[in-house]
Specification:
Mannitol-specific EII, Chain A; about 160 residues; alpha/beta; six-stranded mixed sheet
């Protein structure tokens, strides 16, 4: 799966201002809801929090990939068939209860159709592979514009 199919320039938050995990996930849910017609940010936030209650999605190395599954109807109403994601960058880092205990600098909130496990797993793998690249992380931290942030996220590293 290509990163450019998951992320768009409109779903980037270069300086995600959040005091905690819930606030960060709420903000990213709002960003995604703006691109998904007839899907509320509350529904998106609830999907992310449902997954967080199972186990943290802070995977380590400064990365969190909170993810939720949505009904086929929500995706149909939004005229989307594939997963959708938003990136939040937190230059100073924040506690996300990560597996390695380190602060998180990059949060990618991912939403997938509930019955498309293959696309969901492909999207998770694509995001994880990209963000685990030291080159990508350095480019994301150095990005001084939304365009540069987007380029760092979608470029092959």
């Amino acid at each position: 799966m290509e990163m450019a199919k998951l992320i768009s320039k409109s779903r980037l938050v270069p300086d995600l201002a959040a005091k905690d995990k819930e606030m960060a996930l709420s903000r990213l849910s709002t960003v995604v809801a703006e691109d998904m017609k007839d899907v509320s940010s509350d529904d998106l936030f609830a999907a992310l929090m449902e997954r967080e209650r199972v186990s943290t999605t802070g995977i380590g190395q400064g990365i969190a990939i909170p993810h939720g599954k949505l009904s086929e109807e929500m995706f149909a109403n939004a005229k989307r068939a594939c997963p959708i994601a938003a990136l939040g960058r937190i230059p100073s880092g924040m506690d996300f209860e990560s597996m390695d205990g380190r602060p998180v600098h990059f949060i990618v909130a991912l939403f997938s159709p509930i019955h498309d496990n293959r696309a969901h797993l492909q999207a998770l793998a694509t995001i994880s592979r990209q963000l685990r690249s030291k080159t990508c992380q350095e480019q994301l931290m150095a990005a001084d514009s939304p365009k540069a942030l987007y380029q760092a996220m979608v470029s092959k590293t």
